[in-house]
UniProtKB/TrEMBL annotation:
Residues 24-134 form the DUF218 domain. InterPro entries: Cell_Envelope_Assoc (IPR051599), DUF218 (IPR003848), Rossmann-like_a/b/a_fold (IPR014729). Pfam families: DUF218 (PF02698). This is YdcF family protein. It comes from Calothrix parietina FACHB-288. CDD domains: YdcF-like (cd06259).
Length: 170
């Protein structure tokens, strides 16, 4: 059953890519002010896209960064429901569907991108949303395969049960 369920994801991603060949919004995964600063600069080059930041720096700091980059507050959606990378996606996917967003720019640090992409393929792809990754350079080493596999499993768990297992974290 899981194999059948997961085999639908590439088809849903292909349909999303056809429906929206270009990104319709920006999603930044929180993890340090450098991500918001990069996103503000990136958003200046994409003035028609709304910006979603998942569990980033405190709201006042984030709003100041975007304000200083002349990004209107009306484009900015700060969301603090996520407690980890899996919930960065699962907590916002319904918002994207509600706004009929089928294609996102996904912004995070380069060391974090392999795990973020894996989760995005599973969570967003299962909901008919595709993404274009945009990495921010960092000197940190890439995350381990263990973290990628663990969060892949949690993403599949979310598809099946609607729960991510975040409450089981030590």
């Amino acid at each position: 059953m899981i194999v059948v369920l997961l085999s639908v994801i590439p088809l849903r991603i292909a349909i999303a890519s056809y429906q929206a060949p270009y990104p319709q919004a920006i999603l930044t995964l929180g993890g340090g002010s450098e991500r918001e600063k990069f996103t503000a600069q990136f958003a200046q080059k994409h003035p028609n896209l709304e910006i979603w930041v998942s569990s980033g720096i405190p709201p006042k700091q984030a709003r100041d960064i975007f304000h200083n980059a002349d990004i209107p507050n009306s484009r900015l959606h700060l969301d603090y429901r996520a407690v980890d990378t899996v919930t960065n996606f699962t907590s916002l996917v319904s918002n994207f569907k509600q706004h009929q967003i089928h294609h996102l720019y996904l912004i995070t640090s380069n060391y974090h991108m392999p795990r973020a992409k894996t989760i995005a393929i599973i969570v967003l792809g299962s909901q008919g949303i595709t993404f274009t990754p945009v990495s921010i350079f960092s000197n940190k080493p890439q995350e381990s395969i263990f973290h990628i596999l663990r969060d892949s499993g949690r993403s599949v768990l979310w598809i099946i049960t609607g729960r991510t297992g975040a409450s089981f974290k030590p």
